Amino acid sequence: MSNKKNLLIYAHYYIPDTASTGQILRELAEGMLDKFNITIICVVPSYLGTIEDKYKTQKYYEEEINGVKVLRIRVPEFSKANKGVSCPSKAYGIMAASKPILGVLEAGSEVRCLIEDTHGGLCCEPGEYDKVEENIRWFIDNAGNSELKSMGARGRENLEKNLTRNVSVRKYAEEILKL
After folding, report:
1. Residues whose CB is less than 8 angstroms from the CB of residue 82 and which lie 6 or more positions away in sequence, other chains included
2. Residue 132 and residue 102: Cα distance in Å, rounded?
């Protein structure tokens, strides 16, 4: 019979997820096993937007990793069909201000898809220095014109239509109910 106390920790991510918080929590939890019986409640590994098939059949999964008990909760997998339920904070602020976005982002990334789908700015790939320069020059040459204002307005309109708190909560609820 152990005299260790029980410690329940809720965190969104835990190993093997690639989120840094999951890695840090692992070190903390494993480091306290001599004093506590630890259970982590977290989501199934999903940081990169996809979920392994082994985590798609049940609502809950019980695991033990290096002496730490882990209770995982299934969440929706993000795909092109259900993207747009959230918006990274920097882009959110720029769109809220009705400003066009100059993005140096990988093709297919969430923010780049938002910018391209709404025509809310100009994008290019990281490392395309000539294209970065070309896009900056375009912004400078077109400062104050109606197209720049329209880009910003389209971003804001998309934000208000698809990315408000109420819309995001509704979309998340719909995806969760599909599980």
Report:
1. 76, 171, 175
2. 9
